[in-house]
Amino acid sequence: MDLEAGRHVVANISRSMIDLVRARFQPSFVIEIAASPDILLHRLATRGRENAVMLSARLERASTPALAITPDARIDNNVAPEMAVAAFLDILNDIPKAGEANG
Description:
Blueprint: H1 18-24, E1 31-34, H2 37-47, H3 52-62, E2 73-76, H4 81-94
Parallel strand pairs: 1-2
Helix pairs in contact: 2-3
């Protein structure tokens, strides 16, 4: 299994699951990828997978303070997708593998 081998594993999870994942999988590293509500709305609407009611509910969930997290890193997703991907890869490359010294 990748985790047992000390490899990085990337998972796209709900904010509500972060505490559980941090408790169960050590070490863990949380990257928050966030865009402003207007950018998020535009991108989601462009995909066309959700109707207006679903989009509204999703935007409300994304801004719910109860789901605020303390990530280890943040990516500003208000930029071109290629820039956000490059930032994500840079962060991944800087995360030490399990058992390696951090620093």
